[in-house]
Design goal:
The protein has about 325 residues and is of the alpha/beta class. Helix content is about 35%, strand content about 15%. The longest helix has 20 residues. InterPro entries: D-isomer_2_OHA_DH_cat_dom (IPR006139), D-isomer_DH_CS (IPR029753), D-isomer_DH_CS1 (IPR029752), D-isomer_DH_NAD-bd (IPR006140), D-LDH-like (IPR058205), NAD(P)-bd_dom_sf (IPR036291).
């Protein structure tokens, strides 16, 4: 089978090509699949997309007209896909059910540590041979409180890291994870977590019930020196409310690997363009905000697992199998 893979990073390409060979031919493009790039997919029965693809109803209809029957996405998230319309069109849609939770959890903790110890500012200063310590005062994590919002595999991995630092553990989720309670986590209401935590890390999926889960009210409840970390989905945080909170001089630091309007921005070189997203541009001006470009998952371990799952999705489609990775058609 010939497969079109879009949104492929340069480091990812050899892993994809090696994994699909010799049974399948894969054409890898750095371009993301959108309405503008849809003609590139014509003639490909299987299309392998990234989370930044725009797979709304018109794009799905265009894919079907071009002969596509399978969409396999290289991510666990799939809020960019109109699944109901895909089902009506008779498409098969699959995702990666899971990959290394340590990649994302370790990166989330890296953001928290970098913010706490002012690493970016310190490195920038020393490059200019400025070796003063003014403004670089951090805090011990030991003995302080971490709030983990979402205690699935990634949240559990982050909980283990925080426990290693000797932190008090607070958690919030729709169900209690025994693995976290065994580590000493206390499950509390989200409002209490926001009030008491010194570090808050988000690890829940994006759904209507979690959209802007962290808005103006919960930001107002947080400690003035809290570290807020989001490596999950951008729209979990109301970005406009976040800017307003930061302008008040509140929050010790914010680490964002995701942003609610990142499509069309993250993964692209925008260095020679005017940034037209006023909210993102404003966020980037705060010295206590660290923004990275959706790279938390980006370790060789995680990418190899994502690629392997993607190959299995193609094989399952050809064999007519429905697995835990199949989103459409739904299992009976």
């Amino acid at each position: 089978m010939e497969i079109l893979a879009t949104g492929v990073q340069r480091d990812e390409r050899p892993l994809l090509e090696r994994a699909f060979a010799p049974r399948h031919d894969v054409r890898c493009l750095e371009t993301f699949l959108t309405a503008d790039t849809l003609p590139l997919a014509a003639g490909y029965e299987a299309v392998c997309t990234s989370v930044n693809a725009v797979l709304d109803a018109p794009v799905l209809e265009g894919l079907v007209r071009g002969g596509t029957r399978l969409i396999t996405q290289r991510s666990t998230g799939y809020n960019n896909i109109d699944l109901d319309h895909a089902e009506r069109l008779g498409l098969t849609v699959a995702r990666v059910a899971e990959y290394s939770p340590y990649a994302v959890a370790e990166f989330a903790w890296t953001l928290a540590s970098a913010l706490n110890r002012r690493i970016v500012r310190a490195a920038s200063r020393t490059r200019d041979f400025d070796f003063r310590l003014d403004g670089l005062l951090g805090r011990d994590f030991h003995g302080r409180t971490v709030g983990v919002i979402g205690t699935g595999r990634i949240g559990t991995a982050l909980t283990a890291v925080a426990r290693g630092y000797g932190m008090r553990l607070l958690g919030w989720d729709i169900s209690v994870n025994p693995e976290c309670t065994e580590m000493g986590m206390e499950y509390v209401e989200l409002d209490r977590l926001c009030r008491e935590a010194d570090v808050i890390s988000l690890h829940v999926p994006l759904a209507p019930s979690t959209h802007h889960l962290i808005g103006a009210r919960r930001l107002a409840d947080m400690k003035d020196d809290v570290l807020l970390i989001n490596t999950s989905r951008g729209a979990l945080i109301d970005s406009t409310a976040l800017v307003d909170t930061l302008r008040e001089g509140r929050l010790g630091g914010v680490g964002l690997d995701v942003y609610e309007e990142e499509a069309g921005v993250f993964f692209y070189d925008k260095s020679l363009e005017v940034m037209t997203d006023d909210v993102l541009a404003r966020l980037m001006t705060f010295t206590n905000v660290l923004v990275t470009s959706h790279q938390a998952y980006y370790t060789v371990d995680a990418v190899e697992q994502i690629v392997a799952a993607t190959v299995r999705n193609v094989d399952d489609y050809l064999a007519g199998r429905i697995t835990e990775c199949t989103l459409v058609p739904k299992s009976p």
